Amino acid sequence: MARQFQFTPGQIDLLGFGTHRDSLVPGLAIEVLSSGKKRWRYRRQIPRTRIIATLFGGLYPAVTIAAAREWADGLNHQVEAGIDPREVTRNERRRAEMTVAKAHGLYMVAVREGRSSRAKRPNKPRTIKEKLEIYERDIAPKLAKANIYEVTERDLIRLVEAKGRKAKIRANRLAAELKVFFGWAASLRGLEVGLETDPSLRLGDLRFPETARSRKLDLMEIRWFLRAVVDEERDFQRGMILWLLTAARISEVAQARGAELVGDIWTIPETRAKNSCAHSIALGPWGRSLMRTNHEWVFPAPRAHGPRNNSVWYKARDRVWARMEELAGHAIERFTPHDFRRTARSNTKRLKVDFETAEAMLNHVKKGMERTYDRYEMEDEKRAWFITWEREVAKIAIDAGVADALGVPDYNAETRAKAYAINFSLPKRAGAHPALDVRPLEARAVPVLAVTRAEIVFAREPGRPPLSEPVDLPPG
């Protein structure tokens, strides 16, 4: 049994092997180890439980008698309140280790499982990707190593304001994501983090004004664009023309896989579509030639496995934009890849395309009850539109004199008049009908003499003589 007495430095120096309790502070004792070292120990049963809490408080004399008693007094307050001090210690250690990076890792698990918001449904792959991009680009460089419990509202305000000085729309997206992340950490959904207060609560007041984009390219700008894109590397040339022909988003084009093209149909899978609805695009001969690839990716990165990233496409856009201004002889308003979607959509009325087809062409989903009950996919109507639009753009390329440089096919070859052979099978008996067979005329090695005249005999009616009428046939 441990001896109990009031600790003094002189008495502690004389202590032998064993455990010795302090008479002034309940639970506090000093252990003399076999090595001769003296270690502070706290051991006490939590009231109304069978739990005995044991903790160690460092070595004497590094931890003095006064410091040890102060440490034990704090533990006694917890024990007498029914709190296990070991749990308090574990929570303190967990809090000290809970950086923003660690908390964000837990948050992304909740995002994938659908526990990050009140909606409680799994997020789309595109949403998950965007959240990670915002974190890695805007949050991690400044806050990743910070303790999340020490992040203040002022820290978040500085982060959003700094972003707003360069890109206002992205600053709004950053503020929205910070609100979701810290809101989750401070809610019951984020108990793994257990943030007591939400520092992002007022970030919505920082929202920068946004103006809806209305930029579209007119027909003359399309002409300049096609002339300017001629000087681009072939992959960039192909991809940028596909922005225009398909009205697809930049990521949908840039990350396209060769397997997505089957015949003349390019299908953007639901995992890559913004609205998680697969989208089929009928390609004409020009579009098919632009999508053709022997690689896994339609636009593979030259030095890494995978597609080219979006940043290189924007640099290509900048080069084309500069050439367009040279061709025009004046400044041209900046355009984005997304503006090609607006350009295609804005030409639907001019090309006599109805509203529903125009919306389906952009993969916009139907709304309300129509979305629930009208499941018609409008694939035939979309096909007609995409082919019409491709021919329209091809016509502009031909007029601009860049059709050959851009690989525009000869559409007239498909509709050029063909020769046909017409064969009659004349009846061998009265009452039978003549047969007519029309087929494309095939090339023959041996010339065939054309029939220039034939006689069709109609069935004789009772009381009337047979009627014969000559019929002239053209040669061939």
TrEMBL record:
- Please tell me whether the keyword DNA-binding is annotated for this protein: yes
- So which domain of life are we looking at? Bacteria
Task: Tell me the ranges covered by the Tyr recombinase domain, including all copies.
Answer: 241-376
Protein family: Belongs to the 'phage' integrase family.
Which keywords does UniProt give here? DNA integration, DNA recombination, DNA-binding
Name of the featured protein: Integrase arm-type DNA-binding domain-containing protein
Q: Where is the Integrase DNA-binding domain?
A: 26-91
- MF terms (GO), sorted A to Z: DNA binding
One Pfam match, by short name? Arm-DNA-bind_3
Which positions make up the signal peptide? none
Question: Known InterPro entries for this protein?
Answer: DNA_brk_join_enz, Integrase-like_cat_sf, Integrase_catalytic, Integrase_DNA-bd_sf, Integrase_DNA_bind_dom, Integrase_recombinase_N, Phage_Integrase
Q: Which ranges of the sequence are coiled-coil?
A: none
